Amino acid sequence: MHFDHIGIATPDAGGLAALFETLFDAPVAHEETFDGMTVVFLELEDGYFELLEPHESGAISKFLDKRGGGIHHVALETDDIEGALQTARETGVELIDEEPRPGAWGHDVAFLHPKSTGGVLVEFVSH
Prior knowledge:
The chain is an alpha+beta fold. The chain is 25% helix and 40% strand.
């Protein structure tokens, strides 16, 4: 596994993308509307910032209402997402997703519950 991206909840993905593009020399690599939100991936040398702007009620809008903008999750890329989930199960980690599901950019994803991972929402992603 290796680092893939950090998901950042924001009420203004376009504005934050413009700031990060200038500040970090992180150009937009991909943008789409997915699951009721705008998702913008900014390319870094060793991964991405994933900006998440909700347009309807859901996990990201609830996150923003409760905590405001900021880091939502850390994503690790794996070639074997089912195996990664099995390892998490065997380790006693609570899964949010029992099976991989479609994610942004056409990737398969699965999340681990933050109460089992030191307060960090962890996403497995398979390209």
